[in-house]
Amino acid sequence: xxxxxxxxxxxxxxxxxxxxxxxxxxxxxxxxxxxxxxxxxxxxxxxxxxxxxxxxxxxxxxxxxxxxxxxxxxxxxxxxxxxxxxxxxxxxxxxxxxxxxxxxxxxxxxxxxxxxxxxxxxxxxxxxxxxxxxxxxxxxxxxxxxxxxxxxxxxxxxxxxxxxxxxxxxxxxxxxxxxxxxxxxxxxxxxxxxxxxxxxxxxxxxxxxxxxxxxxxxxxxxxxxxxxxxxxxxxxxxxxxxxxxxxxxxxxxxxxxxxxxxxxxxxxxxxxxxxx
Length: 276
What we know:
mainly alpha
């Protein structure tokens, strides 16, 4: 029975290795520029067309919000501080326009930085894009049922991670398209929605770097028969977005809560001194 199960798992692994070499090839460009890999399906540059549409809406909203804030602050005196210099609002307006207009160029620079950093990390790890998967399957099959099951778990995690990369590419593409709308928040002194938007953008791009590095490291460990370490690397790679999100994304109300707690403690201390 054990022999039959091993043969079944080996058959599944042999069927999967036909895809393994190509899955993580050029995965960084795939996630950063997903539209290039979908252009053959859509027949056009989908991202550029959608970005141009939302760019028009975003610029219109920036202008309308600038006029609204200026009118309510300096004419009606119902919003903001009327004593504040109009230069501050004007600076925020030009900042929002500059980011919305220059974002494609800025993102191009970011993409180059991410790719260069990833390549250097992979060079330091010593991971290669060409592996002898057939020899690995043969080694797995010779070590019994438990090892074969671990090998199957590794392949499942490998495919899950690949689909995560595809989802990350779509997520980054949506974030890129929506940048002009997020720039409306730059008209506020606290940067509004743009603050959390940029943090989410940074988290997505950093997740790509960490995940590709962990996946390559996991593959290298697995092919050297460090089975548990290899699986641990892939599981951590799958959990990377949540791991980074725990400390990269912050809520806007956190500072207010800290200040309120501080003032509450100070009031208690003052009351105790008065009682004494």
